Amino acid sequence: MDLYNEISEYVQQGRMEDVANAVSSAMAQGLPAKNILDKGLMHGMAEIGEKFKNNEVFVPEVLIAARAMNAGIDMIKPLLAAGDSDSKGKVVLGTVKGDLHDIGKNLVKIMMEGKGIEVIDLGTDVPVQKFVDTATAEGAHVIGCSALLTTTMGVMKDVVDEVESRGLRDEIKVMIGGAPVSQGFCDEIRADGYTDDAASASDKAVEILKSFQ
Ligand code: B1M
After folding, report:
1. Phi–psi pair at 95, nearest 5 degrees
2. What is the strand order of the sheet 117-121 is part of?
3. Collapsing DSSP states into helix, strand and coil, what is residue 75?
4. Which of 10, 65, 70, 126 could form a disulfide with 19 if both were Cys (CB 3.0 to 4.6 A apart)?
5. Whose CA is nearest to atom 32 of ligand 1?
6. d(CA 104, ligand 1 centre) in Å
7. How far apart are CA 147 and CA 181, in angstroms?
């Protein structure tokens, strides 16, 4: 079994210490942080997601796996975030109202900070008004919304509508992402940017923020 598979297996089994040891070995071997994330940590979580869907595992197992995954992410965070230190502007980021999933959103934050973006992280279960109020108060030109549930992705449209109803469409751009979200959905709700992973989200945010400089 290669080290990536080992990390994936340990995530699935929720073995936090073993994840930490395997990630440490992978780092010592000079394996790329992006691969440790994609082929090890996220692979393990995707497997757990399938089992969760099929009722083979339940919320406690998923939470324990998520904790193990986060332990690994914390270790590679400095490598993922290594990058620009010049400030590129501000992004207000959060998981939308009704949704408590935050692992993907936290990765987006790490990647954005690595690109020199100041991220104001509102956490999870964030009401529509709070996204827009914060962006206005902080002078942020980008709101980033994450949603993992088909039942909450509609809140992203409410955020776009709220920005529009306050006459701020030219000032504040709304980026969206999360497993159930797609470019088609982005077009449908007239959001300003969609990406399917955290690294591309940070590139997209830099591109949007540049247009305000
Ligand atoms: Co939940 N859950 N969950 N869950 N959970 C899913 C999402 C689900 C697909 C599982 C399944 O059935 N296969 C399913 C949703 C089904 C649907 O809506 N169609 C589901 C469900 C149903 C639920 C509950 C309703 C279960 C219940 O209670 N009956 C419940 C809802 C709670 C709530 O939010 N109100 C629930 C609860 C939980 C836990 C608390 C146990 C836990 C969350 C822990 C936490 O986040 N702190 C959890 C988890 C961990 C998952 C799965 C297994 C993994 C999600 C994850 O962290 N993936 C998930 C199954 C799956 O996705 N395979 C599942 C890893 C993460 C890195 O990926 O978040 O997709 P992701 O982020 C990616 C991209 O999407 C993107 O970048 C990231 C990485 O590159 N991205 C963005 C994310 N946000 C972005 C924003 C951007 C751009 C890109 O721009 C702003």
Report:
1. -95, 135
2. 117-121, 89-95, 142-146, 173-177, 193-194
3. helix
4. 10
5. 100
6. 8
7. 8
Q: Which of 72, 5, 71 lies closest to 39, judged by CA?
A: 5
* DSSP letter string, 48-72: HHHHHHTTSS-HHHHHHHHHHHHHH
Taking CA atoms only, the protein residue closest to ligand 1 atom 4 is 101
Task: Give 79 Cα–ligand 1 centroid separation in angstroms.
Answer: 24
pLDDT in tens, the chain (213 residues): 799 999 999 999 999 999 999 999 999 999 999 999 999 999 998 899 889 889 999 989 999 999 999 999 999 989 987 766 667 899 999 999 999 999 999 989 988 887 889 999 999 999 999 999 999 999 999 999 999 999 999 999 999 999 999 999 999 999 999 999 999 999 999 999 999 999 899 999 999 999 998
User: What's the token pair of residue 166?
Assistant: 């306050």
Closest CA to 10 of 37, 59, 45: 45
Minimum-distance ligand 1 atom for the alpha carbon of 65? 50
Residue carrying structure tokens 């009722």: 55
Q: Determine contact, residues 152/180, Cβ cutoff 8 Å.
A: no
Q: Structure pTM?
A: 0.89
In this structure, the residue with its CA closest to atom 54 of ligand 1 is: 49
